[in-house]
Amino acid sequence: MSKLLKIYKASVFGSALLLPFAAFAQVAAPGQVNTILTNVLNTATTVIQILFVFATLVFLWGVITYIAKADDEAARKKAKGLMAWGIIGLAVMAAAWGITRLLINYFGVGGGVIPTGL
What we know:
Elements: H1 3-23, H2 30-68, H3 73-107
């Protein structure tokens, strides 16, 4: 018997053994899917808001350090780096927020109902 035929028989036998487990699979009701997506939306929004605050604080700390250490060139260079990272963080969070809003509108979560396709 060729190796290909042995592999085929083994895969058919393995599939037949696993088939009963498919009968125990649960299908989520449309309301449950909407709830799950709403929870993901709320979590993502909260995380993005926290990171927005953190990036703003980093930027403001850089500005304060830049002004306070005006006479020290090394401290000013470090402060410029903090301001740059704060701005980069704000840009990344704005992009993440935009992508999240795009996905919310695409999936129709947050007040709408997900179509069931029935």
